[in-house]
Amino acid sequence: MIETACMIAIVAISAAALLNLYRLAAGPDVLDRVLALDTLVINAIALVVVAGIWFASPVYFEAGLLFAMVGFLSTVAFCKYLLRGNVIE
Amino acid sequence: MRRLVPHPVLSVVIAVVWLALVNSAAPGHVLLAAVLGLAIPHYSNRYWPDQVVIRRPLRIVDYIAVVAWDILVSNVQVAWLVLFRSGPRLRSVLVTVPIDLPHPTAITVLTGTITMTPGTVSADVAADGRAVLVHCLDADDPDAVVHQIKDRYERRLKEIFA
Amino acid sequence: MATVVEIVVAALIVIGAFFLLVGSLGLAKLPDLMRRLHAPTKATTLGIGATLVASMIAFTAATGSLSVHELLIAVFLFLTAPVTAHMIAKAHMLRHPALQQQLPSPPGTGWATLAPAPVDPEAPRTGEMPPAP
């Protein structure tokens, strides 16, 4: 039962990632692309967590946590660059 | 005491995060968490000059419960809007919410709460910290949004931080 | 007993995936950036929250000891999602003068994004060396 749910979830999340890719390609502004990348990272975390449940292995947790941190930092760095013209002052 | 534990809340948070990270409450891990909780605030004290004063810690539980419920409701609302109402029929407006909170931490918590709750995103803060610019996804009555934010969240935050 | 746990975990996984899909659909579908901000910040946090709660229940049931480290990812995402949305909104307002004309004026001084940076005589300016003592 859990396996069926995981399969449905992986299909849905993959479709979500494709929609993010559409927004990433279509733009029109650079900030739309930043937002699309941020959402893509969140979908990737969900995919990793669902894979962890499916394979019943706790090692996927670290990957999810690292994805969350790197995704947040890169989004903030992009926005900081667009706001101020540099990242580290 | 003040020199040894400059930020008691930060120490507890670091210890709890460490225990959650190792996912175990064995005595060795508890000891290591306690050491980290004491050492990290001690050595990074220079970067935390202000202390956050929390008057009524128990009200935080009440606040988290209210916000968690609102997050749940807002998710369903936004999902409904995205699926069935999106497009030019959404009446999006920008409104100014005047706020009167004493501490930058309280303003940060309020803006974060606004973003996570029904149909609103906090877009900017006034330079003097006395107003928040809020973008509403679909609002019949902008005044009702302002009233809800002030009555539901700001009043509770004033009681917590004061 | 085990079947109840399985049903709850499976339901939470499907609910989480549904909200993630709706969030991304909103990102693709809504007409302008300020409106697009709403869908990912809200729908995806609940989506990921439900998936992580499912993971907590599944691992707690499988190993017999309480598994709480998924909460760490959930808390991290709930703390950072508003910051991300706020930064994107600020950068969007700064880059679009047409939008700045539509903003309601705040009481007192202007909005922080559009106000000139406060001049701090102690802080070294970007790209300049601090003066020799």
Automatic annotation (TrEMBL), chain A:
Under InterPro entries, the record lists: MrpF/PhaF-like
Molecular functions (GO terms):
sodium:proton antiporter activity
Primary location: membrane
Name the membrane topology term: Multi-pass membrane protein
Tell me if Transmembrane helix is a UniProt keyword of this record. Answer: yes
- Please, which domain of life does this record's source organism belong to? Bacteria
User: Can you say where in the cell this protein is located?
Assistant: Cell membrane
Query: Where is the chain membrane-spanning?
Result: 6-22, 34-57, 63-83
Q: Keywords, A to Z?
A: Antiport, Cell membrane, Ion transport, Membrane, Transmembrane, Transmembrane helix, Transport
Q: Does the keyword Ribonucleoprotein apply?
A: no
Cellular component, GO, one term: plasma membrane
Entry similarity comment? Belongs to the CPA3 antiporters (TC 2.A.63) subunit F family.
Q: What is this protein called?
A: K+/H+ antiporter subunit F
Identify the species of origin.
Rhodoplanes serenus
TrEMBL record, chain B:
Tell where it localizes: Cell membrane
Membrane topology, as annotated, equals: Multi-pass membrane protein
Q: Name one GO molecular function term.
A: monoatomic cation transmembrane transporter activity
Please provide one cellular component term from the Gene Ontology annotations of this protein: plasma membrane
Entry keyword set: Cell membrane, Membrane, Transmembrane, Transmembrane helix
Pfam families registered for this protein in UniProt: MNHE
Residues crossing the lipid bilayer are 63-84
Q: Which family does it belong to?
A: Belongs to the CPA3 antiporters (TC 2.A.63) subunit E family.
- NCBIfam families attached here? PRK08965.1-2 (NF006518)
Record's PANTHER family?
NA(+)/H(+) ANTIPORTER SUBUNIT E1 (PTHR34584), NA(+)_H(+) ANTIPORTER SUBUNIT E1 (PTHR34584:SF1)
Q: Which protein are we looking at?
A: Na+/H+ antiporter subunit E
Q: Which organism is it from?
A: Rhodoplanes serenus
Automatic annotation (TrEMBL), chain C:
Keywords of this protein's UniProt record, alphabetized?
A: Membrane, Transmembrane, Transmembrane helix
Q: Where do the record's region annotations for Disordered lie?
A: 103-133
User: Which InterPro entries does its entry note?
Assistant: PhaG_MnhG_YufB
Single annotated GO MF: sodium:proton antiporter activity
TM region positions: 6-27, 39-59, 71-89
Q: Which domain of life is it from?
A: Bacteria
The protein's name is Na+/H+ antiporter subunit G
